[in-house]
């Protein structure tokens, strides 16, 4: 089963953008992400519609964050992507005649609904600033290890 990696990809792009002083082109982001510029543009369009990024046209143009990293949560990005389903688990049949399957559907639906609500709430407290801080901690650790290895 293919997993939906759009949230991960969008977060990846946004953090790369945060590391650039000026606008970042779709081509640059595509190279960073080992992706295609057209896919980056399509993703960025949804983020722009939700006020997370803005685009600058012309020579030297590209994408910029429209808000501070502290003001963008994973939930904001998830919603900008159309709030895709977070779980791939589903019912075998949406309207079964079998009473056993009805009981199974009810249990799964209720449990998945609660789990998704909890996950989306958690997305709402994780900011891009916290992801950026984690990236910078990891970068410093790599630099430290490289210095010790030399």
UniProtKB/TrEMBL annotation:
<dbReference type="Pfam" id="PF02082">
    <property type="entry name" value="Rrf2"/>
</dbReference>
<protein>
    <submittedName>
        <fullName>Rrf2 family transcriptional regulator</fullName>
    </submittedName>
</protein>
<dbReference type="InterPro" id="IPR000944">
    <property type="entry name" value="Tscrpt_reg_Rrf2"/>
</dbReference>
């Amino acid at each position: 089963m293919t997993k939906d990696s759009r949230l991960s990809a969008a977060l990846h792009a946004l953090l790369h953008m945060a590391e650039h002083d000026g606008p970042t082109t779709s081509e640059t982001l595509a190279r960073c992400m080992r992706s295609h510029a057209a896919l980056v543009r399509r993703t960025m369009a949804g983020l722009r519609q939700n006020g997370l990024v803005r685009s600058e046209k012309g020579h030297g143009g590209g994408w910029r964050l429209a808000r501070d990293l502290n003001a963008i949560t994973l939930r904001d990005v998830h919603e900008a992507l159309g709030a895709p389903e977070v779980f791939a688990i589903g019912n075998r049949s949406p309207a079964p005649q079998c009473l056993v399957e009805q009981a199974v559907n009810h249990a799964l639906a209720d449990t998945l609904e609660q789990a998704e609500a909890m996950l989306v709430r958690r997305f709402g407290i994780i900011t891009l600033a916290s992801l950026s801080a984690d990236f910078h901690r990891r970068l410093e650790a790599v630099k430290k290890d490289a210095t010790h290895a030399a």
